[in-house]
Specification:
Layout (H helix, E strand, L loop, with lengths): L1 E7 L3 H13 L13 H14 L9 E10 H7 L6 E4 L16 H4 L2 H35 L4 H16 L8 E9 H11 L6 H17 L26 H9 L2
Antiparallel strand pairs: 1-2, 2-4, 3-4
Helix pairs in contact: 1-2, 5-6, 7-8
Amino acid sequence: MQVKLLAYTPEPEKTVAGAAKLCYAAADIDTVYEGLTEEKTASFLEMLQSIGHESPIEHASFTFGIEGVSRSLLAQITRHRIASFSVQSQRYVREDGFQFVLPPEIEKIPQAKEEFLRAMEEDAAHYQRLTELLKEQHKQELLAAGETEKSADRKAEKQAIEDARFVLPNACATKMLCTMNARSLLNFFSQRCCNRAQWEIRELATQMLREVRAVAPHLFEKAGPPCLRGACPEGKMSCGKMDEVRKKFAAL
């Protein structure tokens, strides 16, 4: 897995503080940034958190480059709907010899790992064979309709991989750009940094949090699973490792 913060709102914390200042002080747009020292900016951010006023936080956004994650993770992260996603398409990008994510629990059992790798090889072979069969059929139809050899070949491949991709596994690796505003990110971290989250998206969320803390430390100071800010809300489903979790995110 590789996670990189590609772009973000310039001076994100000052932008959020400026929005808060406009709400609560006699300022106008020409003077809203005046006097926003680092100390004053931090004070505005702390005030917003203490009173639960979250809408000003939406003015800061962050764009991540993410690769080496599974299509299974893609199904989870896109449930966070206040976000923008651009994902490498399996309709347009051929997946010959596709990369895949090997779950750690499978990797540590030799027999399970062997079975998993064999399944990946079989899936790759089925994908390749389906692509060849579909492409040949589509190409003949396109040639019969008057397409040139080059055009028919190109269009036939696109049509073939559009259907052949149905045999690809959830483990198939993908790449994406993801943009979220800070308020959505705080919710995302609260849900996905928790030990109750699935291991892959938990690792992704933790890496994303590390990236944004480097550029907006006050804004994301208390970001992470709910147990960082109080009692665990999971009840009987709690992992029971609150002290361990708190130490982990304090050292992030």
